[in-house]
Amino acid sequence: MISVKDLHKSFHNAAGDVEVLKGISTEIKDGEKVVIIGPSGSGKSTFLRCMNLLEEPTSGSIEFDGQPIAGPDAKNVSIDRIRAQMGMVFQQFNLFPHMTVEENITMAPVMIRKQNKSDAIARAHELLKMVGLEEKAGAYPRQLSGGQQQRVAIVRALAMDPKMMLFDEPTSALDPEMVGEVLRVMEALADKGMTMAVVTHEMNFARHVANRILFVDDGQILEENTPDAFFDNPQNPRAQDFLSKIINT
Questions:
Q1: The listed CATH number (3.40.50.20, 3.90.600.10, 3.40.50.300, 3.90.470.20) that belongs to domain 2-248
Q2: Measured between alpha carbons, how far apart are the two ends of the chain, in Å?
C-alpha cells in the first residue's frame, strides 16, 4: 500500500536546520495494521504527516498504491487526490464548530468527490450508526464529549472511502474514561481489514491490534517486529529502556 525509502525531513528555525527524520525506510502492506511508538519528539508524527504530504519530505521517496507521490520519480501528483485516499485523524478533533455532525461529515465527499448530497448523507448516517452516534447527526461539536467528537472525526475520514487510515495519537487529548470508546472504533476498523498506520502511546492497543510495531527514536526506526516479539523481548537497548519506563508506569 505504501513504501517509504530513506525518508529525511528537516525544519528550519532560528538556530538553523533541525533534522527530524534521518533516513526512515519501511513498507505497509494492504490490510496491515502498523503501530508506531516511541518517546515524544522522536519524529513519529512528522513521519505520519509525510506519508500523506502534510509535510513535504526533504529527501527520500514515498510510493502509495503503486504511484510515486514524493521523491525524484513523483510527477504531476494530485495532493488532494492522495489525501482523499489516506484518511487522517489527529490529536485534536478539528471539527468545524459552526457545522452539525452531519455537515462536518458530508462536506468533503460532496465538495471534493462530487458525491450526490443525499448519497453522502445516507453514508454519513450509516457510518455514524457504526460508531454508535447516529442520533448525534444534528448536534454541533460543542454538544459532544471529546470521545464522541473523535469518533465523528474518524467517521469524517471514513466518509471519503480511503484506502488507508492514519491516526496521530488519536486518544491523547481525551479524558481517560473516553479513550476506550475511540479505541473500540479503531479495533473494529482493524477487524474489517482497513490498512492502518497508528501513532499511539496505548500499549495494549499496540499489542493486540498491530501486525507490526515500529519503534522510532531520534528520527530513525530502531526496531521493527511483531507485537509479541517486541513487547516480550525487545532487542534494541533504547526500546528496552522505553518499554521498562512505560510498563512500570
A1: 3.40.50.300
A2: 35
